[in-house]
Structures are given as structure tokens and as C-alpha cells.
Amino acid sequence: MPPKKKGNKKAAKDDWDSDKDEKVLDLKSTPQASDDDEASPPPTAAPSSKNKKKEKATKPTPAPVNAFAMLNDDEDDDEGDSDNEPAVKSKFAALEIADDDDEEGEKREKKSKKSKSSSKSKDKDGKESSDKKKSSRTATPTGSTPAGSDNEADDGDDAGEKKAKKSTREKKSREERKKEKAEKNKKKKPEDETSDAEIPIVDDDRRSTPGAYGYASGQALGPDGTNPADAIAVTGNLLSPPNSRDLQIDKLTVQAFGKLLIKDSELSLINGRRYGLIAPNGSGKSTLLHAIACGLLPMPRTLDYYLLDREFGPTEMTSIEAVLDITKREVEHLETEMEGLLSDPNKHAVRLDHIQTRLVELEAEGGERRALDILNGLGFSEELVQTKTKDLSGGWRMRIALARILFVKPTLMMLDEPTNHLDLEAVVWLEDYLLHNLEGHTLIMTSHSQDTLNEICTDIIHLYHQHLDHYPGNYNTFTKVRSEKDVLLVKRSAAQEKQMKAIKENLSKTGSKAQQQAKNRVKAMEKRNEKDKEKNKDLQEELIWDKPLKLRFQDCGRGLPPPVLKFTDAGFAYPGERSRKLFSDLNFGIDLDSRIALVGPNGAGKTTLLKLMMGQLQPTEGTVTRDTHLRIAQFHQHMGDQLDMDMSAVSWLCSQFKEWRDQDMRREVGRYGLTGKSQVIPMRQLSDGQRRRVIFAFLGLKNPHLFCMDEPTNALDLETIDCLAEAINEFDGGVIFITHDFRLIDQVAKEIWIVHDGVIEEFEGTIGDYKARLKEKYAEQRRVAEEAAEKAAAAASAAAKKEAKA
To answer: Residues 470, 471, 472, 478: what is their CA dihedral angle, to the nearest 10 degrees?
Structure first.
């Protein structure tokens, strides 16, 4: 049966009431079917005249034909013009006898009237031929019944004329209803627009916006030329209002490369808060940030965002031009977007208001001075500021990308490992900047530095077994709360295990009363556990025993007398710069018990000093001697470039060490925290931190006496850094390392050497003392800058008053 259309019910009923006499006439008119019906199945046998009264009183059975197929026209045609519709021959007339309350009869009656009107309109002369009158009777609106007498044929002709008039009236009625509906929609339209402005659930203001300028590196595609969004799938419900500066999403689920990373979690980023996102490598921290930057998450249209993910590209622009370029790109994008939205300003009022506010922020005066201050704070000299980015190393271009996002200052700032490639001085400056310059802005960052997380963060988001847990406070507060939570989980697990053990003992007593009581207790325990989950959401998770990560370097065997490496009156200058010596008069020795941390500003020569130790550079004066049996392994920041990304970790390591079998290599790699599927999948699918573990395994297989490490903590998670510190402490050889991670230095270093101005100075004190000295230095710089800004503002105000008086 066709679906009922409530809008036409009243109109059809009015037509029925107004033409009751004509309906009676229709029932008396019983001509035979026309010649057009020759292809149709024959009608049912005609009832005798004795049964006519009974036929009027009862509803006959319809003909055995699929009448619904002929009534299956689109109901929208009821409101259209019937002149262009083909006539439909109904096969059962008795449905016309339905009561006034029978909606189905009214619907079929209306279809029949439409068919009759269509048949009449298609006859150009308005009359039927005499041959057709002789061979057939005029068809009734609903069907045909064999004739009973000749007089009934005349009645049928009169009925046809009346039905033609009625069809005209019905057509007018449809047109009138159509006009009424259009007027109703016109009146309703402004009301709908008003309600959209009042109700916060507006699709246009909640839709996900592709990250056209969401990357501080200025590159929307990944290093391999692919779009990060292509491999990520996200679902979730936005809870934030359209004009909010917060980002609150419920039921968030994130997948990458078909792997489930986050499941049914809540993400809550409140404006003005600074969040630390922590999780083991490969859990999905960076994927979540990419999903936001690519516009895959729904968010309010008043929320602008940028992600720091990698270095700025090599271009013809200078460093300062590259920083200023980011505002130019966003201004152009916003102006283009605004032109498109102005076609319907009422609908896009929220977004337009945000664009205008944002343009005012981006076009503020003093931009170049502010960009220079940021570059200087990140360690750029006047020469580097004017150097083209194509002539800079990857580490310096990474600092340019960081400077760009700090300069453009989005409402939501996302920093993925911002301290990578920074020295300790730049890290302290960055912490100071983020603490004092982000009022009214939201920060979410990943970092492997516990010290940085403690200094900056107001909240911690812990990605733990595919779930996001929110904790107020910095990293130390998180570890304390988390340990207390683990204790509660352990207690609850132990209590449940004890109860279950007692219940199982009673269940083993078959046929006893205690067995039935035990079954009841099992049901009661299940109900109680469900209630506990509802009451205490913090303890909903089950206790999960993670396999502890363990890193261990093979023992070197020692056996070498100290010093294994010695500098005697050594000096060095790069070719073409003989007049500017980088080092001079270096005298020191290193043995297998050394644990030395090299600190100092970038450009002071820390990496050059390591290369002199390795023999990759030769001193321009003096000597550097090494024991003839000394084995040295070097870790540097760009070792990942030598990995074959299409090979698995096990296959690549076996290609480097031919004597190792595949199965033995899998066990060796497992010692460095790379287990299961991560050993055999292509390394391009591993996280940066997991690739670092492959490199550690590679270096460990060399069995060195001395490790020289340049920024080994980059891209490592917090747990791995602690394991690395433990592995260094247990290693029986020597270690010299450069790092910006204060915690690693605090855990490992026995000596701290400051490299500056061509000399090496041993620092008397802890790394905490060294950081406190740096913080005092930057606090003083900030105070001087604020005083200069106040004086400049006062001078400008005085000049304006003087000009006004003149």
C-alpha cells in the first residue's frame, strides 16, 4: 500500500462531502471497459440485478490484478499539473464504496480522478468518436462493471461530464494548496533562521574545516609526499558551542592505517589551559594532533589552530622572511574565505565575526620586531636571521617552523616535540615564553622532557590503552595521582580475586545449598561491579599489567688502560675560517668510567668536539690520540636517514650484520623494546621513537667501548628515556653525550662541561643549578624588554598629545 500523505487528507475529504450526489451517480454508472483495456486481464463476472442492493451495502473483493502497481505513482504528482500525466485504468470499481473515514478509499479515488482528467485533456476535440461510443462505455473514475441496462449508459455520460467539471475543481484545489504551502514556507523561513542563531547546534558552524594553513612548516603533505589525512579515520561528537574557543569532543575514536589508536574517549581542551599529551611511542599522540590539523575532527568555526610537526622547507626566503610569511599566507586564505561567506552573511555570522577579529590580530603593528625577538630567543644570530633557509641545516629550519607558530600565535597551538633540536638555553627560553605569552590561548604539546612538562603544563592527557584520561596538574602531579590510582586498582583486583576464589570453592560442592548460594553471589558481584563503575568513573579501567621496557647495551669487556682518548694542546678551525678558531689549547682525557654531558649554546662547537673524538675531523693544531683497540659508536640526530623504510627492523639489521640469523635478531631487537608486529612491518609504519630503538639496537650490536651520543632523546617517550638512562648507568664503558633533556643529565652525568667561546669549562654544581642560572638570565631580558616597550608606548602617547595640541 502506498504511504499515506497526511497533507491531502482534509482536502480529499472535503471533496467527498461536497459531491455526495455525484458519488451515488458514479455507483450507478456501470459501462464496460474501453478498447484500451484489451491487453488487461478480463474483469470479474458481473453481479445480477438482484444483488445490486447488496453490492451497494457491502464492499466487494477486488479483481485479481496487481492494482498497487498502478497506484504506485510518486505521491508528489498530486500537487503537480495533471495535464501531462497518462491515464491509468483501475481494475476494481468497488473500492469507490469506502466510507468517508476510509483514507485508503479517498487516496484511490483521488488517483482515479486524476486519471480521468488526464484522459479528457489528451483528447484534442474534447469528444469521443462515435465508433468508440458504440464499442465501449465511458469508464468510471475507479474501475468498470458490466452494464445492466441502456439507460445506465446515459447516466454514465452525465457522470463523465460532472466528473470533468469536478476534475477542474480538483485541479484548482491542488493549485491552491500548492500556493498555500509556498506561502507557508516563506513565512517559516525567517523563523528557521532565527532558531539556527539561537540553538548552538548548527551544521555550518560545526563542520570540520580542512587544514589549509594548519601546519607551521608550511607543508600540507608529509615528507614522503602523501597527505596524513588519507590514512586517518575519525569519529566523534562535538559538544562545544559554535562560537566557543574550547574544543570538547565525546565518543572520539581514531584509527590510522587500519589500527585502532583511540576508542570512545573524551577530548576536552579548555581555552587558556596548557596540556601535556603523554603516551608510549606508537600509541597515537602525533596521529591525534595530525587529525586536528587536517580538519578531521569537528570543531567550532571560531577556533584557529596550527601544528608544529617538522622543519620548514629549503627556500629562497631568509629566516626572518620565512617567519613573516606565515601571517601573509593566513591573511590571504581568510580574505578568500570571507569573500565566499559574504554571499549569505546572516548564515555565516559566527565565522565572519571570527575572521574579522583574526585579521586585526594578524595585521597588528610591530610584527617584524616581534619575529626578531623570537628568532633571537631560539638562538639565531644576526647572520643566521638573514641567511636563506635553503642554506640552513634541518635543525635550524626546525627552529624556523617553531618560530612561525609562536609568531602567528593561534588560538589552539599544537607542538609535537618542540624541544627537539634545541639546546638547553633555547629550551629554557621556550619554557619562559610559553608561560608568559599564551594568555587566552590553548596549548597541547607532546614532549619527552619531564622537566619541560613540569614547567609548562597545567593539565596532563594520558593516552593509555586506547583511552584518553585527563589529569589536572603537571607531570609530577600526574605520576603521583596515577600511582595512587594503580594502588586502588591493585587493591580492588586483589579483593575481587579473593572473593572469586571463595565462591569457586562453594561452586565445587555439587548438589549442596552452598553451591546455590555461590551462584547467587556471582550474580550479586556482577551487579555490584556495574554500580561501582557508574559511581567511580576514575576506576572504570581494568588493571593492566604492562610488560616493563628494558634497554641493555652489551658489556664492552673493558681491558683498556686510561685514558682511552686524550686531547693535547688541541685546536680546531674550519677551512676558510683560520682567523676564527673554534677551539684552542684543549687538554683533557677520557676513560671508560666517564659520564660527561656537554652543554652550551648552539654554534659553540659541541657537535664538532664529538667529531674530533670520533676521528671524523682532525685538529688544526695539537693532537688527539685514541687507544688502538678502542671501539667507538656514535649516535647522531640524522641516523634515521640511513634506515631503509621499506624493510622491517629485523630484515634491515640482518642486512647490516650478516652473521645473525633472523630468529636470533628478533630476540635481540626485543631487548630494545621493539616486539611483536613492530619487528616485521615496514619501518615507515613505525613511529620516530620506535625507529630510534632500531638505531640503539644497531649501535649495541657493535659492542663499543665508548658511546658518543648527540641528542639521543629526540622522539623518545618518557618511559624509554628512563630506560636509556638506566642502560647507560649499567653500561661498563664510557659515555659522552649532548642533550637538552635536563632529567637525563640529572640521572646520568657525573661531569657537566660548558662549551663556549672556544673553551671547555667544567661546571661546579648540578644541572638544576645551571638551569636556574639560565632562568634568571631570561627573566632579566624579559624585564628589560617590558620596560623598553613601556617607554616606547609612553613616548608614542606623548607625541600624540603634542600633535593634538598643535
So the answer is: -150
Cell of 609: 668536539
Does 275 lie in the same domain as 153? no
Based on the fold, state whether residues 141 and 35 are members of the same structural domain. yes
Residue 303 lies in a domain: yes
Q: Are residues 223 and 124 in the same domain?
A: no
- Which amino acid would we find at residue 791? K
Amino acid at 24: V
Count of residues making up the chain: 806
Last residue of some domain: 539, 563, 596?
A: 539
pLDDT tens, position by position, 690-700: 888 898 889 88
Instruction: Name the one residue in this structure whose C-alpha cell is 609612553.
Output: 794
Residue 99 lies in a domain: yes
Q: Do 130 and 85 fall within a single domain?
A: yes
Please state, in angstroms and rounded to a whole number, the distance separating the CA atoms of residues 156 and 170. Answer: 20
pLDDT digits (tens, 9 = 90+) for 329-346: 888 888 888 888 898 888
Domain contains 155: yes
165/263 same-domain check: no
H or E element that contains 798: helix 767-805
Indicate whether 24 and 56 sit together in one domain: yes
Residue 93 DSSP one-character state: S
Asked whether residue 137 falls in the same domain as residue 264, the answer is: no
Which contacts of 312-315 are long-range, i.e. CB under 8 A and separated by 24 or more positions? 312/216, 312/217, 312/218, 312/389, 312/397, 312/398, 312/400, 312/401, 312/404, 313/217, 313/218, 313/219, 313/389, 313/397, 314/389, 314/390, 314/392, 314/397, 315/388, 315/389, 315/390
The answer on 213 and 287 residing in a single domain is yes
- For residue 11, CA distances in Å to 16, 106, 301, 411, 439 come to 9, 10, 46, 57, 64
Residue pLDDT, tens place only, 33-57: 444 443 444 444 444 444 444 444 4
**Full residue range of the structural domain in which residue 418 is found:** 204-465
Q: Cα dihedral sign for 395, 396, 398, 403?
A: positive
- Where would I find the H helices in 417-561? 424-436, 450-456, 475-507, 513-535
pLDDT mean over 307-321: 91
pLDDT digits (tens, 9 = 90+) for 93-137: 333 333 444 444 454 555 454 444 444 444 444 444 444 443 444
Q: How far does Cα 786 stand from its chain's mean position?
A: 38
**Closest-CA residue to 47 (of 25, 71, 30, 34):** 30
Nearest alpha-carbon partner for 694 in 715, 708, 710: 715
Domain count, the chain: 3
Mean pLDDT estimate for the chain: 75
Amino acid at 323: V
Which of these three, 118, 149, 182, is where a domain ends?
A: 182
Say what the pTM is.
0.65
CATH of the domain at 304: 3.40.50.300
* Position 296 in a domain: yes
